Each structure stands twice: as C-alpha cells, then as structure tokens.
Amino acid sequence: MVVKLLQLLVFIIFIQVNLDAQTLSPKAKNWMTEAKKLANKGDFKNANKKLSKIIDGFPQCAEAYMRMGSNYYSLGEDDLAERYFDKVIMVDSTFSPEVYFSLGIVQMRQKKYLESAKNFSLYSLKEDVPDEKKHKAQRLSENMTFTYNAVLNPKPFHPESLGEGVNSSKYSEYSPSLSFDESAIIFTKNIGQEDMYFSTKDSLDRFTVSIPMDHLNTYQNEGAHSFSADGRFMVFTACDRKESLGGCDLYYSNFVDGQWSKPKNMGKDVNSPSWDSQPCISPDGKTLYFSSNRSGTYGGSDIWMSKKSDSGTWQKPENLGASINTKYREETPFMHPDGKTLYFRSDGYPGMGDFDIYFSRYSDETKTWSKPENLGFPINTSGAEGGLIVSLDGKTAYFASDIDPNTQENLGQLDIYKFELYEDARPKPTTFIKGIVQDAETGKTIENAVIRITSLDHQQESSTFYSRSEGGFLGSLTAGESYSYHVEHPNYIFYSDFFDLTALDSLYKPYELNIKLQPIPVEETQAQVDSKPTVLKNIFFEFGSSEILPQSFTEIDKLYRLLELNPNSKIKILGHTDDVGSDQDNILLSQQRAEAVRQKLISMGINPLRIIALGYGESQPIASNDTDDGRRANRRTEFILFY
Predict the structure, then answer these.
(1) Are residues 40 and 177 in the same domain?
(2) Which domain holds residue 481?
(3) Does residue 147 sit in the same domain as residue 18?
C-alpha cells in the first residue's frame, strides 16, 4: 500500500510539473497544452495521440516522452511506460532526475529487480532532489537488490490452511497463539470488531469449529494476545476503553477456579498515552515484549520489553534497542519458548517491499541480538506480511495472509496458515516440563514454591517457575541439554536434583517432576538429629578427590542461605561412596568430601560450631552397587538440619 501510494504521487508530479522541452512550433505547443488537459481528465489515450504528433515532428522533445511514459503508467501498460522513460534519458539524460525514479518504479512493477535497483540508486546520487525522496530511493534500491537475490534463492515453503474450523469465508482471522502441544489455538477474528476465538483439535488432528471467548470479549476490540507457559496468565490488547491510557492498551487476566478473571489494565507502569499492542510473554514469564509508538521510539513503532520484578510487578518498559528497531516500524514480536529466538515484522530492513518477517537470536555471552535476518521469498512477498509464531519443536510456523499462498489469489480477508519452517530459520527445539510440589510428610500440595532450573551445559539459570495453589507448575526448556534444579519455600528445606533432556523421545510429552519437600524442623528435641537426610544432588567432586567442582557452588549457596534463615539450627554434612575400592579408602574419601563442604560453608561465614562433617564410606548404600546408575546414586553428599 505504501509503495502504491508513492507510485501514484510520483506520476501526479509528472503530469502537473512543467518541464523544459525542445523549442516547439506554435501548433506543437497547442498539442502539448491539449495533451495536458486530456491527461488531467483521465483521457490518457487521446493525450498520447497528441504527444505522438509532437514526437513525430520533434523527436528530441524530452517532455513529450516523459508525459507519454506517465500516461502509459496510468493505463497500466508498464512496458510502454518503461520504453518512453528510457527515451527521455536517451534524448536528454539531464532533463529531469525524476525520470530515474519513475523508471525504477515501472521496472519494479515488472519484476526487473536489478534494473530497478540501478535506477533508484542513480536517482539517490542526484544533487537536486529532496533528501527525503533520495533516502526513499536508496531504500528501494536495497529492497530491489535483496528481492533479486531472494527470488533466485527461494526458501522451501508449502503452506496449508488451518481449515474451516478456524478460517471463514467472510471474516479475517489472524494473530494466532498455540498451546505447547499444539492441541489448541486462540486467535483474533474481525467480525466488524475484533474478538478472541478458541479452537481445539479433534481425533483426526483437525481444528474444530471455533467459539468466541465471551468471558473476555466485549462490544469493543480485543485481540493480539499472549499466554504464559502454564496457560494461566494472559495479556491482550484492548482499544478505546474508558480506563485506557492511550488508544490501545495492554490488559491482563488470570485463570482462576476454571475461568478467566475480569481483565485489568496493566497500568501506567507498562501502558502509555500512545499505542501499546501485540504482547508476547517470554517462556519463563519474566519478560513482556510488545510493540509501541510511545515516546522514545526510534521511528513509527518499536519493540519494547517490560521485566517482572521478584515481587511480581511489571517494570518500566525498555526499548529493545537499535540492533532490532529502526526509524521505521517493528511490530508483532514473538519470542520462541527457546528464550533466544525473536520473530517480528518490519518495514525498516531490506526486504521484498512492505512489511517482511525477520528473526534475530539473543546471545547470553555477548548480551546482544544478532543482525535480523529476512525469512526470504516466498514466505515474504511484495505485500505486507503479518506476525508469525513457531511451534515448540521449531519445525512449524503459523501466520496470517490475505493472499492464498498456493494460488496467489487475493482472498479479500486474512486467513491463518501453517508451514514447515526451513532449518536455518528454526529456533532451538524446545520441550516442556510439568510437576507438582508436595509436603513430604503430609502429601499436601505446596503453593508458591520457587523452582529454579539451571543449564548444566551453559552453567546459567534457564528458567524460574512458581507452584500454583494445587502445587503444579508448567514451563518450557531447550531440548538436548542437561539441567539441575533447586526448589525453595520459606517453610521447607530446599530440594535439588538434576535431569537429562539430551535423549528425549518426544518434545510434546512433558518431562515430569514429582517434588517432595521436607518441612524445616522445629526447635524442640535432639531427636531431630536422626531425621531423614536430604541429598545434595548437585554437589560434584573431581574423580577420586575431595576437590569441589565449580558447578556445585549454587547448591552450597542454597545450603548457606538455609542456615542463615535458621540461625539457631545446626547441620550434619554426610559423605557416602560406592563400593569401588577398600573400605578404609572409602571412609577417608567420604570424610574428606563432607569436610570440604563444611570448610566451604565456614569460608562463607557460617560458625564452625554449627557444622558437623561425617564420612560413612560405602556402609549406607541407597541403591545396588551392581550397576553404574546404582553406584552413581550411592556416591552422594547429604545433610540433616537439626537444633
């Protein structure tokens, strides 16, 4: 639409501006005047008849060629328009710089991308043209060069409609979001106003007839939504409400007791007096990405982010920066559950024409975003592409288009499609975990336990989850890695363990964790000394040594904080080995390892009198020593908290 408007304005200029011309006879001058009048009335054919007479008698009249080219463009005859604009340059290359821009436009329409790029570039080098239009020509030249290479190197693209359950023949459907297992979809439908609709898959893997989310929809516009990983927190866009701070604001709702709560405005800490829309919640629930044209935006609209504090409040949004945003428009952010790959649409980077879809990857090492990459042709076209989302395994992308990608037929409204995303544009495959946190003694579920998961491969925290009222939690993790996790609650001894997702069978089958927390003992009797020990599953030593490995320090820090929070408590550190080696050597090694943990806690500030280190060697196995897994379980460090 932007390009078409630009084209129209250019050719109106051609019709209205009087240009220098070869000296004409009085009769030829009358023909020129009549040609102008006819063109202004839209009678381009008869106007060209007059101009042809001028050219027959005055073949060096550049203005006649220029107006002929303009008239043929208006008639949609781009090949003839190109011929006459070329004639202008042949007759007088200095006649008007506008002819180069005009030639670029008609060549672009004919998909002569390199020729178009050349003429836009020549126009941008002219001194006597407006800076703004010179910059437009530079961008168009970059777009045409990109388009030429993109068309020569198309990406695999075989889209299919989501079917009649989602798409209709009358209304537009767009802005899809999926459940982790792709069994349910929520999207926006425009039925004269924007509302949110919901559909699930049947036994044949087809989406059923969608139903409106009446508990959230109103007579005003609602849409452009995003859900937390566990599906219990939702952010969406609503416009022109009484309590809105701007034209469109972000609202949130919680899923409580089987239904969504009354939506609330996210408030002035997140929303602005400007346009705020298109939210996306990060997989760990800690960051909210959205598009806005608020103060501080580089251009038309930028991608912003708001981070959630430890207290649960959303902080003042930050601009994602110049590595993502341009002085044009960036919209529809989608952060994949891998937590690293961002998809968005923009009209500020070299592309196929209007809005194209791009992706960028975040580096934890450099704390920067990679240069955005265009998804390529034919995923991107000369039209305006909408937002795109990608499935958990990174293989399937979903998007909305008003052009049937298979037939190129203009549908008149947006439909939602899916396609297999090519390898280079995929995020890391991601799976999801779910679990429940319970009291080890009573079996009751525990609310608001904090589950922190750390990548053992990268030695950094990957995700943080919180158990709900029924003790459950759900979240996403990158597949193909190993993880440790720590579970904390003020009334319980922390729990730790690790798990391996390097050989996961199915990304859509959750890895399940059943966590039982031991209550912190009360200050009563010495009998607590003999209470059940807690295994420190993420304390590791060099083979056959008592040297603590660096990946153990997180675990020891948890132990330190437990002692700090319970200043009257004492602790036993218990070392154990498998049965490899002599009894005496194993007793010595287990004692040295327990003592190493004790010394580390002392170095952190814990009173030595509060810590007892004991080594039991191989005398207290918890599994058979006949297997590798059993021996691995027996090589452990435990603790008992007592008073």
Answers:
(1) no
(2) 429-519
(3) yes
pLDDT digits (tens, 9 = 90+) for 524-566: 544 444 568 889 988 999 888 999 998 888 889 989 989 998 8
Is the residue at 316 inside a domain?
yes
CA-to-CA distance for 177 and 387, rounded, in angstroms?
Answer: 11
Residues 6+ apart with CB under 8 A from 505: none
Cβ–Cβ < 8 Å for 280, 178? no
Q: Using CA atoms, how far apart are residues 55 and 51, in angstroms rounded to an integer?
A: 6
CATH of the domain at 214: 2.120.10.30
How distant, in Å, are the alpha carbons of 175, 192, 267, 294 from that of 317?
Answer: 22, 32, 12, 10
293 and 305 in a common domain: yes
Judge contact between 324 and 372, C-beta under 8 A. yes
Confidence band for 237, pLDDT divided at 50, 70 and 90:
very high
Count of H-run helices and E-run strands, the chain = 11, 33
In a domain, 166, yes or no: no
Question: Does residue 463 sit in the same domain as residue 562?
Answer: no
> Residue 477: what pLDDT?
83
Closest CA to 462 of 307, 308, 340, 559: 340
Question: Cis ω on the peptide bond leading into residue 176 (within 30° of 0)?
Answer: no
**Same domain (yes/no): 343, 237:** yes
Residue matched to tokens 């000296």? 23
Is pLDDT of 383 > 90? no
Is residue 444 within 8 A of residue 516, CB to CB? The reply is: no
CB burial of residue 363 (10 Å; 0-12, 13-18, 19+): exposed
503-534: pLDDT as tens digits? 765 566 678 889 999 998 876 544 444 568 88
200 lies in the same domain as 266: yes
Whether 110 shows a pLDDT value over 80: the answer reads yes
The domain tally of the chain equals 4
Domain co-membership, 245 together with 355: yes
**pTM, entire model:** 0.80
Tell me the C-alpha distance between 306 and 272, whole Å. 13
- In terms of domains, do 92 and 215 share one? no
